[in-house]
Request: fold
Amino acid sequence: VKIIVANITTNQTLLYTTPEEFATIILTAQVSNTGNADANVTFIHRSNVLVGGTRIITDTELVKEFDIPVKDASSVIVGKIILEENQAVLVKGSANSTLKILLSLLETSLV
Reply:
């Protein structure tokens, strides 16, 4: 099990990329608001596929501008998410120094 904890900023930030020859299960993605005002978060899945020698990157917002009330927390996923090798998750918030995210991951070797 791997745990990632990060501060969320107004810049879109790469949180995690599945290594080659691995698959990853996201068990938890919990966002807390430790600030003094409501804030929102956008949680993004990035697919990174090589097709005929061309790398195609597709971002899918799993939640967009999801409100997290002040002094509260919420999960930004329902259930588990499986990431294949080279797939990633990113995050962006509506404010700096207000939101924090905790990811709980399980990496599994494909070889």
About this structure: The longest strand covers residues 54-68.
